[in-house]
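Build the 3D complex.
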Amino acid sequence: AQRVTQPEKLLSVFKGAPVELKCNYSYSGSPELFWYVQYSRQRLQLLLRHISRESIKGFTADLNKGETSFHLKKPFAQEEDSAMYYCALRGVQGAQKLVFGQGTRLTINP
Amino acid sequence: EAGVAQSPRYKIIEKRQSVAFWCNPISGHATLYWYQQILGQGPKLLIQFQNNGVVDDSQLPKDRFSAERLKGVDSTLKIQPAKLEDSAVYLCASSPLWPGANVLTFGAGSRLTVL
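Done.
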């Protein structure tokens, strides 16, 4: 079964401080992992995917298969990073449905 | 390109009444998804269509929820009769078959309140 766990519902950091949003997953196989973000009064949208291995808005995420984790990191937080962040997993077999974690609300304090 | 369109944006009904939500995906996107997002939780997949066929509906409460995508384009999600626990935002999303098959584009959502 596919399962995504985001242990922190709320995370608050100061502007300029490093940010790490945790994501752990459960899946028997090699899944695809994603981070989606929802800014205030905007639609849920893709932030990044592990396959792309790119940095988006200063955020990076590395898939660690040994620890079954896909933590999202940014070295210097900005106020505009305040949003709801969802980690998501897509299986590579069967229906390949996208399963989301519970989400973490990130607040960047000035 | 135009985004995923959903209507209505807000709906308030009493329990045991019925409600329908409509979704028009991005033109050319073969796959359409309906998610339910209860306050404080992540989106939960209700049903996934590829063209007009159902790929996954394992978490759809079929005794009260139904969905269709008759011509492989727009889709309707119906709840009848509604329960209090159906209060949620119903998100529609779509994705192409290729490329970017795994990247979903979401609509703004339809917020349902059941009293």
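Chain A has no helices and eleven strands.
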